[in-house]
């Protein structure tokens, strides 16, 4: 079990005013460790420390910021195995996910933004020739667009990936010269403290990185409404994102929001069904469906509908559910007992709405752990709540369509969400044509793979802004224009 942690405020490890709370392993229900519960005052102290550190850090040479981020990546890699064990214990992730998609991606993001710190921040613009007039004599005006750090950034992270998600916020924010207050998800904050350990050992100056955790809502509220915070970067539910947006709007804080998703996967009659089934089946595997980019809404042409459902049912049958530490396990538990009940309630709702449960639907018979069986709901319509609302669990709903591209696009776009959609078709020209019509921040064509330099973010209620690759550096910066007479 991990030792009780302290808050990181202004370079010092501080005892939490609210004591500690238990972090629970979703697989065994054992206590993993004790996370600190910050008070509102301590969150404000962290933001003030970040404000005090901003001037020095923002003026630090980019190569020095790069060196610190590079060293942090080295240190994360040095302790890779223990980090993966902790991440697995906190999240219930399978061994492959904890190692390859949590800790490894976290280290890679620090490495990526060590390079990012060295990317140019100035862009020369074409000179403008001005005629004589009220603004002065005729002349040539030169211009420069300069990306400047925003200031103090609050990073509020999701529970499904306590390494990749915070690293994807903290690393580009620091690379651009911002200072940060990190408020990790209450379910699995201990990994984020490990990340802070690495940054501190790597040489991050006091106050540049601050971490405050807590299970109480007030901790997150204080991290958003502190007058010392200039920007909030949030990953989580749309409902919480909307509340954060309201608070940020009062003082015009900058926002980056990566919110909910209900990914539509359009499967045309000429699609490679095995490829489509394997891609859509990842919904069950990665984080037990607790991932906003999952293709949870399969829109399948009637000409291949029965075959698709049969293949996906067989695919689900081969997905071993159980102890995430056991070899061969594909689907581990969801994050908590409360979330398990929420997912199960949606499955029952699907039954009542008229969906056919062709796989799953019953709680696995384990003595401990928050397990949900991978579930496939067939014969759905776009009006059902299980099709329209984000379940955030190992559940896929299949909606048949019988018409042309217009019907498929109409069904896919008939959603409040628009994060990532997918298209499977043997006609690549059609797939790209359909992709351009989808109201989503990203579209996978015949793949669920990602290009980690491509902009990431959502349309509609799936978010505001874009990050990943160099786009993250833009997200954590403000544009300043400088003009002069030629």
From TrEMBL:
Residues 13-482 form the Aldehyde dehydrogenase domain. The lineage of its organism: Bacteria, Bacillati, Actinomycetota, Actinomycetes, Kitasatosporales. Keywords: Oxidoreductase. This is Aldehyde dehydrogenase family protein. InterPro entries: Ald_DH/histidinol_DH, Ald_DH_C, Ald_DH_CS_CYS, Ald_DH_N, Aldehyde_DH_dom. The keyword Nucleotidyltransferase does not apply. It holds the Pfam family Aldedh. It comes from Streptomyces kunmingensis. It comes from the Bacteria. The keyword Flavoprotein does not apply.
């Amino acid at each position: 079990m991990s030792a009780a942690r302290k808050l990181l405020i202004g370079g010092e490890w501080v005892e939490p005013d609210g004591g500690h709370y238990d972090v629970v392993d979703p697989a065994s229900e054992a206590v993993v460790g004790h996370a600190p519960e910050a008070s509102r005052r301590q969150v404000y102290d962290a933001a003030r420390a970040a404000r005090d550190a901003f001037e020095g850090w923002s003026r630090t040479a980019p190569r020095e910021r790069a060196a610190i981020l590079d060293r942090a990546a080295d240190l994360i890699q040095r302790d890779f195995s223990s980090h993966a064990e902790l991440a697995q214990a906190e999240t219930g992730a399978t061994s492959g996910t904890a190692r390859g998609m949590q800790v490894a991606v976290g280290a890679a993001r620090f490495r990526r933004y060590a390079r990012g710190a060295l990317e140019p921040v100035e862009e020369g613009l074409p000179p403008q020739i001005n005629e004589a007039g009220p603004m002065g004599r005729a002349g040539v005006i030169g211009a420069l667009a300069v990306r400047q750090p925003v200031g103090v950034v609050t990073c509020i992270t999701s529970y499904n990936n306590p390494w990749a998600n915070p690293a994807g916020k903290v690393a580009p924010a620091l690379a651009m010269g911002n200072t940060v207050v990190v408020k990790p998800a209450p379910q699995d904050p201990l990994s984020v403290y490990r990340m802070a350990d690495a940054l501190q050992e790597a040489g991050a100056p006091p106050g540049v990185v601050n971490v405050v955790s807590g299970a109480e809502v007030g901790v997150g509220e204080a991290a958003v409404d502190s007058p010392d915070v200039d920007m909030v970067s949030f990953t989580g539910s749309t409902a919480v994102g909307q509340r954060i947006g309201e608070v940020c709007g009062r003082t015009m804080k900058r926002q980056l929001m990566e919110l909910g998703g209900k990914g539509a996967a359009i499967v045309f009659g000429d699609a490679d069904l095995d490829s489509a089934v394997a891609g859509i089946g990842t919904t069950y595997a990665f984080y037990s469906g607790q991932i906003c980019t999952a293709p949870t809404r399969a829109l399948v042409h009637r000409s291949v509908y029965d075959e698709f459902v049969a293949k996906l049912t067989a695919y689900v049958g081969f997905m071993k559910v159980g102890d995430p530490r056991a070899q061969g396990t594909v689907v581990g538990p969801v994050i908590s007992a409360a979330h398990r009940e929420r997912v199960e309630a949606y499955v029952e709702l699907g039954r009542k709405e008229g969906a056919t449960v062709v796989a799953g639907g019953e709680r696995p018979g384990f003595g401990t752990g928050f397990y949900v069986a991978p579930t496939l709901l067939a014969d759905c319509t776009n009006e059902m709540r299980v099709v329209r609302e984000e379940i955030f669990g190992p559940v896929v709903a299949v909606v048949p369509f019988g018409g042309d591209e217009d019907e498929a696009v109409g069904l896919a776009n008939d959603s409040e969400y628009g994060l990532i959609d997918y298209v499977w078709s043997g006609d690549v020209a059609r797939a790209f044509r359909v992709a351009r019509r989808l109201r989503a921040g990203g579209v996978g064509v015949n793949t669920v793979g990602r290009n980690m330099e491509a902009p990431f973010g959502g349309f509609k209620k799936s978010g505001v802004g874009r990050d990943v690759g160099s786009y993250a550096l833009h997200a954590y910066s403000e544009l300043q224009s400088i003009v002069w007479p030629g």
